[in-house]
Amino acid sequence: MPAASHGCQSAFLPDLARVGEMRQTAGAFLRRCRVSEPVARVVALAVSELVTNAVVHGEGEVVLRITAAVDVVRVSVTDHNPAPAVLKEAGLDGESGRGIRLVDAISDAWESNGKETWCEFRYAVFAASVPRT
């Protein structure tokens, strides 16, 4: 990460009620970092999916970390489950199983090593703060 990065972190016990709160926290943080609204909405969607996945399938405390740098936003969610998140094929009538597939579709990169699942969105975060010549 370049020196001009900003981050936020929140740790909480697994509770589906925290998903919306973490999405709102992500939105507020990204606005402070001057991330464009369209990008912030996509990142917030990824936050929702990764936090939901950790709450439903994880173990123990969940930690959300968001870092915004000059050209990338990184979202990381950790818990104590050693099993990695995986892409699933949800049936047409399935009520779940699409979250990681959605993160795969909307992010530039993602990975899960078990305790941590992360994704990245690459673009010029601070373009609005750079003077035009």
Could you list some keywords that capture this structure?
single chain; alpha+beta; 3 helices; 5 strands; 34% helix; 24% strand; disordered C terminus
Quick structural gist:
This protein has 133 residues and is an alpha+beta fold. Helices cover 34% and strands 24% of the residues.
Q: Number of helical segments? A: 3
* Count of β-strands: 5
Side by side, the strands of the main sheet go 1-2-3-5-4
What series of H and E elements makes up the topology? Answer: EHHEEHEE
Q: Give the overall shape, derived from the CA principal axes.
A: globular
Low-confidence runs of at least 5 consecutive residues: 125-133
Could you estimate the helical fraction of the residues in percent? 25-40%
Structural category is: alpha+beta
Largest sheet: 5 strands, antiparallel
Whole-number mean pLDDT: 86
Alpha-carbon distance between the termini? 26 Å
Radius of gyration: 15 Å
Structure explained in plain terms:
With 133 residues, the chain is an alpha+beta fold. It contains three helices and five strands. Strands 1-2-3-5-4 form a five-stranded antiparallel beta sheet, with helices on one face. The radius of gyration is 15 Å and the shape is globular.
Spell out the blueprint of helices and strands.
Layout: E1 6-12, H1 17-32, H2 37-57, E2 62-68, E3 72-78, H3 99-106, E4 109-112, E5 116-122
Antiparallel strand pairs: 1-2, 2-3, 3-5, 4-5
Helix pairs in contact: 1-2, 2-3
